[in-house]
TrEMBL record, chain A:
Role according to the record: Core subunit of the mitochondrial membrane respiratory chain NADH dehydrogenase (Complex I) which catalyzes electron transfer from NADH through the respiratory chain, using ubiquinone as an electron acceptor. Essential for the catalytic activity and assembly of complex I.
Keyword NAD: yes
Transmembrane segments: 26-45, 57-76, 96-115, 151-171, 202-220, 241-261, 276-294, 322-345
Provenance organism: Equus caballus (Horse)
Entry keywords, A to Z: Electron transport, Membrane, Mitochondrion, Mitochondrion inner membrane, NAD, Respiratory chain, Translocase, Transmembrane, Transmembrane helix, Transport, Ubiquinone
Name of the protein described by the UniProt record: NADH-ubiquinone oxidoreductase chain 2
Gene: ND2
TrEMBL record, chain B:
Protein name (Swiss-Prot/TrEMBL): NADH-ubiquinone oxidoreductase chain 4
Membrane topology: Multi-pass membrane protein
Record keywords, A-Z: Electron transport, Membrane, Mitochondrion, NAD, Respiratory chain, Translocase, Transmembrane, Transmembrane helix, Transport, Ubiquinone
Domain NADH:ubiquinone oxidoreductase chain 4 N-terminal span(s) in chain numbering: 1-109
Function: Core subunit of the mitochondrial membrane respiratory chain NADH dehydrogenase (Complex I) which catalyzes electron transfer from NADH through the respiratory chain, using ubiquinone as an electron acceptor. Essential for the catalytic activity and assembly of complex I.
EC annotation from Swiss-Prot or TrEMBL: 7.1.1.2
Gene name per UniProt: ND4
GO CC term (a single one): mitochondrial membrane
Family of the protein in this entry: Belongs to the complex I subunit 4 family.
GO biological process per UniProt: ATP synthesis coupled electron transport; electron transport coupled proton transport
Provenance organism: Equus przewalskii
Domain NADH:quinone oxidoreductase/Mrp antiporter transmembrane: 112-397
One Pfam family recorded for the sequence: Proton_antipo_M
Main location: mitochondrion
Amino acid sequence: MNPLIFTTILMTVLLGTMIVMTSSHWLMIWIGFEMNLLAIIPILMKKYNPRTMEASTKYFLTQATASMLLMMAIIINLMHSGQWTITKVFNPTASIIMTSALAMKLGLTPFHFWVPEVTQGISLTSGLILLTWQKLAPMSILYQISPSINLNILLTMAVLSILVGGWGGLNQTQLRKIMAYSSIAHMGWMTAVLVYNPTLTMLNMLIYIMMTLTMFMLFIHSSSTTTLSLSHTWNKTPLTTTLILITLLSMGGLPPLSGFMPKWMIIQELTKNSSIILPTLMAIMALLNLYFYMRLTYSTSLTMFPSTNNMKMKWQFETKRITLLPPLIVMSSLLLPLTPMLSILD
Amino acid sequence: MLKIIIPTIMLMPLTWLSKKNMIWINTTTYSLLISLISLSLLNQPSNNSLNFSLMFFSDPLSAPLLVLTTWLLPLMLMASQHHLSKEPLIRKKLYITMLTMLQTFLIMTFTATELISFYILFEATLVPTLIIITRWGNQTERLNAGLYFLFYTLMGSLPLLVALISIQNLTGSLNFLLIQYWNQALPDSWSNIFLWLACMMAFMVKMPLYGLHLWLPKAHVEAPIAGSMVLAAILLKLGGYGMLRITTMLNPQTSFMAYPFLMLSLWGMIMTSSICLRQTDLKSLIAYSSVSHMALVIVAVLIQTPWSYMGATALMIAHGLTSSMLFCLANSNYERTHSRTMILARGLQTLLPLMAAWWLLASLTNLALPPSINLIGELFVVMSSFSWSNITIILMGANITITALYSLYMLITTQRGKYTHHINSIKPSFTRENALMALHMTPLLLLSLNPKIILGFTY
């Protein structure tokens, strides 16, 4: 794509999300979502082939439906409150419709079906933008309407998302689908604590974005989209196998890596609010996630995956320069001792 | 406590910056020095006031375990030299780094005051162990072993996290030093029963309890020697240590909640001892014997009498040294014949008489011969369980007999009899191996002269 046009489109995506996050008028938020959606379609379709067309179409359909639902919720809210400012949502029906719309945008169960298929159909970089940047806008709206969200619906969606994210990823070997299911599960964790302490949602979002960015960049570095091709990284850059190990364990939520911090804080917050069975269930279901991360680490760094002999002598092309990879890796694995600093967020 | 933790962390730069011919020498020497420093902790004042800071403390229970941990690192390094000799330098350094990281986490776990800090470090010990087992193990079953190990422990310990946080909400703090003064009886309710279960299951899986022990033979057998040593000697004792710490907060539910686990342990110790009699795999035999000894510790901790706590602590230390020594002996066989089958390397007394002496001593301490500290531990546990209920003496007596049976079976199969013709070209024992066995045996024998330092806080 012509670099100028590409920059313009990318800026529109950024602008769309910024408008969503900073507006106080519901119509502007809807406009921001639409701007974001329309501009990201060309980015998803950077390579022009039927697979990306299918993925972009699916993405467009689901997101457009969600935007329409959002518009309906906004109008109902307008009918009942008489004003367009974002505060809380004044009508339970509008709140439920809005929560469903935002869940559709985020990829929470039962609206998660588009996430693996869309992520699989697009290139790694587009998948990166899809799974990290696109989650910011809906999450910011959820954050702002959090006092009025129906707890039952949100917690059901959250728990089901963690389940689906765990179980769905078990049978996958394609890396983009694995990251998609991991995103579904993490969204579940984030929305579970939204009603109790929205700050922790933001913390979880931050750490999730860091870890997902790191994972995608490591995949882009070794140009691998399947488990099989990832298992050849020991030949190209042996150091990245260790980094993949550390980042995957962090995503699985193992102490002492920083992926444990959001889970710990969320469990603490939920327990303080006297729900004990829920965090236990959530934590145990996160072990399903850990299983397929472990399978990836086994094939990549801890064993030598079966490969033909000519795989051991690959051509060494010029390595891609991935910006910001070292700081991201450090941040996605070593932040746990900084947990007492979270008191500044109060 | 930082005087032990910081040098252990600094062992990592030491390995990465050492020259090729100096890595083993440097790391072994400095880790021996660190264990020398930790010996000073054994001098516990009687009023239990050895608290170093808000975050670290040491009391008569954790000090022997800490000394055992620091003592074991140089031994692990010495034991690993042979099987790593053919690896490239970076992988050797990675291995030592994994061991050192594990050591750091273990030291911090045994001295943590805050129970959530204990939990995080308890979980953190899983990662280096998993990497050691999966990356440097020898057979394809190691993948399964690593998964079983990780998931059994995590399934047990995630409820523990929730339970600890809910206890923190109830009592306001999880600092162990404070809780022992604030302790109040838990009211009787269903949720407190689940709280008891959540707290204990993590340690039950780690010990392991008989029904949940499936990970242990896999992990012990598939791990390389240093992994087996640290698993058997220390990581199992983490479960015992955790149980000893947390049962102080869990009264009075323990009096009735403990029954299923007591029954499982009492039956399990006989079962696993009997399985040992039918094992062909040497490491598997030692692994099942670990389950059997740890079942005794579970019985002791759940009975909650002063004598049983003394027996549990002594048994943990004694079993740590004995089991680690047995794994080293099995490994010396494995390095020569590359097989763990017992009968493939029999009659070794004729070929390696000094090693046969170490085999004899190790087997004798395993079957709890007087006056070793193994006997002190087992005897205290048997006596206290007899006073708890007279009938347990039958099971305990049967267990002691079967333990003696399989220890002697192991000794006689590997050492006595005519040697097979295919092992008459094995290398003689290295000085390193003899030093390793001596360093295991010497504390074991010396401690029988003054066992009060390992008898824990109820002495």
